[in-house]
Design goal:
mainly beta; 6-stranded antiparallel β-sheet; 153 residues; 3-stranded antiparallel β-sheet; Immunoglobulin-like
Length: 153
């Protein structure tokens, strides 16, 4: 069979990537601490957030705070105050409801990126009694709170 001719055309092929981020956290446990607390509370290390964003995608991380401190409640309704800070001493650089962005703007690289914050548990002066310069808090455990973390991209 003979062919009478041929024609050709070009087509455009397009791929659109959807920029995205994922965030993961895990439970943070202060461990066992004394129920007699100094006024400035205790810092128990580092809490890490893991962000994974599309390579080259700018993003920011923040703590979702309704107030500057978060109430940690025990089963009896007693409270401790929980705050988050940007340094290992957890005494300065407190994140607040008005300023909850963790660090500056970041850029995704397609792999897990770790963002560290530093929690501090402090006495609630209503529920903990002042005695000899320290606060005696209800030892009924555990105290807990749910804290949201957000990536904006």
């Amino acid at each position: 069979m003979a062919h009478a001719g041929s024609v050709s055309d070009n087509m455009t092929v397009t791929v659109n990537f959807t920029p995205t981020c994922n965030i993961s956290t895990s439970a943070y446990n202060f461990g066992s601490i004394d129920s007699i607390l100094p006024a400035d509370g205790v810092n128990a290390g580092t809490f890490s957030i893991t962000a994974k964003c599309t390579n080259g995608l700018p993003y920011t991380a923040s703590i979702i705070l309704a107030a500057d401190d978060v109430d940690m409640l025990n089963g009896g309704g007693k409270k401790l105050r929980l705050s988050f800070h940007d340094n290992g001493t957890a005494t300065t650089g407190q994140y607040t409801a008005a300023s909850s962005q963790i660090g500056g703007s970041k850029t995704g690289n397609g792999t897990d990126q770790t963002i560290d914050i530093y929690p501090r548990a402090r006495p609630n002066t209503t529920d903990c009694a002042l005695s000899a310069g320290r606060y005696v808090c209800d030892a009924a455990s555990p105290y807990s709170a749910n804290v949201g973390m957000r990536l904006t991209f």
